[in-house]
Amino acid sequence: MISVTSAQITAWIAAFIFPLARILALISSAPVLGNKQIPIRVKIALAMLITIVIAPTINVPNIDPASAQGLLVLVQQILAGLAMGLTMRLIFTAVEMAGDLAGMQMGLGFASFYDPVNASYAPVIAQFLGIIATLAFLAMNGHLYMLAALADSFQAFPISAALPAAAAFRTLAEWGTTIFTHSLQLAMPLIGALMITNLALGILTRSAPQLNIFAVGFPITLTVGFATLALSLPYLAPMLEHVVNEGLDMMQRIALQMEKH
């Protein structure tokens, strides 16, 4: 007769629930996988499937999840998953910010569509670049590399009752400041071309004051903006690949710094 003690059941639950907390936190905050259009049941099922695959390879301490120490470990795992998911989410924020900057320069700052991902209205150029970035992210298997980095994080930052180091969250904050750098890099071709166009229109207005600049300048700005956007799209994929690789490296760095005290 097979007998199972309550201590064994607690150990089995702990070996499943602690990794599940980190994985589910990353899926809920990561790009593509954390899309609001994906049903919550699908996200939970995906997290449970990944946990079943990863859990046998993880050394989980025998801590009762219902105890105070167990709740502390759960919070620790949720923070770790959210930090790594937010690291990748910031990349798409940079792309959308680049589209926002380009749209304002083109005169399309007022043109916005409802964004179901963020449940808000987003400029049309920002939403377009966001879709392009999502497709490129899937094409380069970024979601698989992200899950691989998540699996490696259990070795870099194992499950324990120790609190994560504050240096990891400082690194995450510093990574957030790079949004502006990457946004300007992505939007610089459009900004440069439109700045030259606006300078030319300004000189034209001074030389021909009777010219209605609002009737002529807006179509010219739109034409130059869309032409520059079409010419710069082939160069967008290498830049996105570079930024995604930086984000994956940052995920591993944050996981390593969480273990250091």
Q: Whole-Å distance between the termini?
A: 47 Å
What is the averaged pLDDT score?
Answer: 81
Number of helices: 8
Q: Could you name the ranges where pLDDT drops below 50 across 5 or more consecutive residues? A: none
Helix content: over 70%
Strand segment tally: 2
Principal-axes shape call: elongated
Radius of gyration equals 24 Å
The domain count comes to: 1
Structural class: mainly alpha
The neighbouring-strand order within the major sheet is 1-2
**Portion in strands:** under 5%
Largest sheet: 2 strands, antiparallel
Order of helices and strands: HHHEEHHHHH
List keywords for this structure.
261 residues; mainly alpha; two-stranded antiparallel ribbon; 8 helices; elongated
Folded structure, characterized:
It is a single chain. The protein has 261 residues and is mainly alpha-helical. The chain has one domain. It has eight helices and two strands. The protein has a two-stranded antiparallel sheet. Strand 1 and strand 2 form a beta hairpin. The two termini are 47 Å apart. 31% of the residues are buried. The model has no long low-confidence stretch (mean pLDDT 81).
